[in-house]
Write a structure and sequence with these properties.
Elements: H1 6-18, H2 26-41, E1 46-50, H3 53-65, H4 77-86, H5 88-97, E2 104-106, H6 111-120, H7 126-134, E3 140-144, H8 151-162, E4 166-171, H9 177-181, E5 184-187, H10 193-216
Parallel strand pairs: 1-2, 1-3, 3-4, 4-5
Length: about 220
């Protein structure tokens, strides 16, 4: 198994100190981090699928990845020059305010597309359709499902695999279709939906902290 450097290991240590129940999941959490790191190193993007509370988690994760979370993410000098070349006045304002982004898309939020597909085709394949449209080889699908058996997520995961994408899962403790299918899956040690969700949040916050440190904090 690949090892983390001291800075990234510190995030894992803090996570397990604050949430000792997650200690049995340590290796899978690290494995999931490396799937994220590898995706972004390849210039890929992360697609995130979840229903209900897990849809809210998907949106939450996108918010942490697409803008500054805990580290500053200033516009790099080369892009700042291009912005000002496009328009000196507006470019200067953009260069001073834009933040570095780690591309991520939550698949629950496109209401016109989703409702059109639900009405015209199959409600269970609304996420899969978006993976079909957005997904590229080298991208990553993060599927969040407390049961691990959500059909909407499994259809999306199947399309992702066919596209040459990796699949990362966040589920509850039971073995499931997603845990058997995914390249890595963190099965948190709870079974009740709300308790599973309570442990998902610190894990994805840890991933977001780590990936931000890696790409914007000099931890790679």
């Amino acid at each position: 198994m690949r090892t983390l450097n001291a800075k990234l290991e510190g995030h894992i240590s803090l996570l397990l100190e604050r949430y000792p129940a997650l200690a049995p999941c340590r290796d899978e959490i690290v494995e999931g981090y490396f799937l994220l790191e590898d995706c972004y190193k390849r210039g890929g993007k992360v697609l995130i699928a979840g229903n209900g509370g897990s849809a809210a988690d998907a949106e939450h994760i996108v918010g942490e990845l697409m803008k500054g979370f805990c580290n500053p993410r200033p516009t790099d000098a080369a892009f700042a020059e291009k912005l000002m070349a496009a328009d000196a006045e507006m470019g200067a304002v953009l260069a001073a305010n834009l933040q570095g982004a780690l591309p991520a898309i939550a698949l629950d939020g496109h209401f016109a597309l989703s409702t059109a597909f639900i009405n015209d085709c199959d409600p269970l394949m609304a996420f899969a359709q978006q993976v079909n449209g957005y997904g590229c080889e080298g991208d990553l699908l993060l599927g969040i499902t407390t049961s691990g058996n959500s059909k909407t997520v499994m259809y999306a995961a199947t399309v992702a695999r066919a596209k040459g994408m990796k699949v990362l899962g966040l589920t509850g403790e039971r073995e499931s279709r997603l845990s058997a299918f995914a390249d890595a899956c963190v099965r948190v040690p709870e079974a009740k939906t709300y308790m599973v969700q309570e442990l998902h949040l610190p894990i994805y916050h840890c991933w977001c902290l780590m990936i931000e440190d890696a790409f914007f904090g000099g931890a790679l």
